[in-house]
Design brief:
Blueprint lengths: L3 H14 L7 E4 L10 H8 L4 E7 L2 E6 L4 E5 L5 E5 L8 E6 L4 E5 L6 E5 L2 H7 L11 H10 L4 H6 L9 H10 L13 H20 L30 E5 L2 E5 L6
Antiparallel strand pairs: 1-6, 2-3, 3-4, 4-8, 5-7, 6-7, 9-10
Helix pairs in contact: 1-7, 6-7
The structure holds zinc ion.
Length: 258
Amino acid sequence: MPELPDVEIYKNYFNHTSLKRKIDKVEVIDSSILFNTSIQKLSTNLVGKEIISTSRHGKYFFGEIENGKYLMVHFGMTGRFDYVEEGSIPDYSKVLLHFSSSFLSYICIRKLGKISIVEEKDAFIEEKNLGPDALSLEWNTFQKLAKKKRGKIKSALMDQKFIAGLGNIYNDEICFQSKIDPKRKISSLRQKQLKEVFKNIGHVVDMAIKREADPDKLPKSWLLSNRKEGKNCPRCSGKIKKIKISGRGTYYCPSCQK
Ligand SMILES: [Zn+2]
């Protein structure tokens, strides 16, 4: 499932392939992907225009159109971009942005992704009640928000209204690297532990982006490379355990995460 690092990589991919290029045609193959937007509205806002800059907040991608509005893309469970210079339309393409001799496809195998035209980016983020973006999070903000937050640390990190961008796999990694049991109540964490969590949010996300969010390229010392029940913990002699938190499969080492 795309998390912040994946969306950051898709944003960079968009910049390399599709930024500042005139869109000749918008082709909607599956309109169920459109959110608060019609095919007509998508075309009116995009055809004959360019995306002049891109940004990201949490798992949301924004392409600023030259008319001041935004193309918003959410990648759901399986969404991604594919730029095609020559060749046929990739399977599961939902929307195509056609340029003079190429196109960008938004692909989504399962339907949970969303595409929309958004008038105001900041108003959209506010409307969605999204917390600060995990990549630009500051310690003071995190500390303030964490003091007000209730529930398990893992559930808190999953909550996009608390911090935007983190998902299941990287949150397990953040708890692992912070040596904190994901079941721990956030209110029970000492200042030092909270600081450790904050530090590891930045560390895990930065490293994941640098390594192209490719599990094969991430350090073997990470939990991510050892997400299997009963596997040896890469840090101690413990065995990895799987539990459920907020309905999501959660991996941790009971021996070194306290
Ligand atoms: Zn361990």
